[in-house]
Amino acid sequence: MKYTINDTKFFPKTNGVYKISFTNSINGKVYIGSASGGYGFYTRWKSHISSLKNKKSGNTILQLATNKYDLSNIIFEVLEFCEKDDCLNREQFYIDKYNSYNYGYNGRPKSSNNGCLPMKKVTKDKISDKWKIKRDFYVGEVRRLYINENKNTREISDILNISRTFIQKIFKENEIEPRKNFGLQKVRFYQYKDGILIKEWDSINDCVIRNSFNSNGIRIVLNGQCFFYKNFHFNYLKLDVDEINKLENEFKIKSKCRKYYYIN
């Protein structure tokens, strides 16, 4: 059974031994591996695709081959289904059979499962120190963007190209107090019912809490993607009844179906 990177959703979720090769390779070299974790081949092969695509594979030989032959030409093949406890023994059998260490893409002569080996404390400390240095490097910029420029964590993540989890760790380590608006935008807007102004709001968060609304519903109307949310119209402008009716008529003409006109 052979699969390509386009067959991700069909990857089997069972344990066993597999082979990796390339459709346009003429040297016959292969990589032998085993899948013994959760969701078996599915998880293992997706991990291969992600690391090879980002050029971060722990297997340098396989990475160089992928760079040469291209990821789109990679082939995953199930060699054998087996029990989780038998995977390493069967993997070794196929490493020897295909000679994939001496003449292939396996970087070790013996099968191993690093994921099941406990990490040494010295290794953990090195990794921890590395990430601490990186967080110390970004703390000044995070503080400036969050406090001085009032950016939310999503905006900071996009600007600095770092994850929001990473930003939250910076907050915790440097005692930066998160804002209690759950990242919802503070902006003045108006709520209308039947064309009549019924409420002026200073933040989406307040409107959500007091009315048990969904923030996305309000945003969709404010952004002009829909006209009503739960029979209410929201607008950044303060308008009278005639202006609201005019806007609604214009929106009806532009809307091709009801779902673009009203959302509940």
Low-confidence stretches: none
Quaternary state of the chains: single chain
* CATH 2nd-level architecture of the largest domain: 3-Layer(aba) Sandwich
For the record, the CATH class of the largest domain is Alpha Beta
Instruction: Count up the helices.
Output: 9
Named CATH topology of the largest domain: GIY-YIG endonuclease
Average pLDDT = 85
Separation, N- and C-terminal Cα atoms: 47 Å
Secondary structure: helix percent: 40-55%
Helix/strand-derived class?
Answer: alpha+beta
Spatial shape = elongated
Count of individual beta strands = 9
Radius of gyration over alpha carbons?
Answer: 28 Å
Biggest β-sheet: count, sense, barrel?
4 strands, antiparallel
List the strand order in the largest sheet: 1-4-2-3
Helices and strands, in order, run as EEEHHEHHHHEEHHEEHE
Count of spatially separate domains: 3
CATH homologous superfamily of the largest domain?
GIY-YIG endonuclease
What proportion strand? 15-25%
